[in-house]
Amino acid sequence: CSSTLVALDCAAQASRMGRQEFAMVAGTNLQLRIDMWIGFCKMTGLAGDGRCKTFDASADGFGRSEGSGAMVLRMRAAAEAKKEHAIALVRGSCVNQDGRSATITAPSGPAQQRALQSSLRDGELRALEVS
Q: Across the chain, how many H-helices and E-strands are there?
């Protein structure tokens, strides 16, 4: 579920290291297997209203969705030299996985905090500067 973000992190890091001028990152998520839907229903993992409500005390499951997206990354200096308009800027990124979480549906809160802190350090940002 995070493979596109891992690809974005790899592309951003390679660009910062001067390994490439361009990178294309794309990802797709399709819900093609009915047995997965049935399994999530049996374990009551799906929210009744289909909304995740992340970090909210009223969270009661998650909502499944499909989607696809792609982006082209370019080194900032190269884009500025050609007077190209950037839609967004990847200031920092981080990927982590310790393999010791209880289950895939119970990720490690402290590990997620460390990843966010590492991303902020990588981008030389403070949390309040992120929008």
A: 4, 2
**Strand runs (DSSP E) across 18-92, as ranges?**
22-29, 67-74
Total of domains in the chain:
1
Cβ proximity of 60 and 53 under 8 Å: yes
Write the pLDDT tens digit of every residue in 63-79.
Answer: 888 899 999 998 888 88
Asked, for residue 11, whether it belongs to a domain, the answer is no
Evaluate whether 67 touches 26 at the Cβ level (below 8 Å): no
Q: How far is CA 24 from the centre of its chain?
A: 15
Domain that holds residue 112: 91-131
For residue 95, tell me if it sits in a domain.
yes
Query: Which pLDDT band holds residue 100 (cuts at 50, 70, 90)?
Result: low
Neighbours of 12 (CB within 10 A): 19
CA torsion 100-104-106-112 (nearest 10°) is: 70
> How buried is 28 (Cβ within 10 angstroms: 0-12 exposed, 13-18 middle, 19+ buried)?
exposed
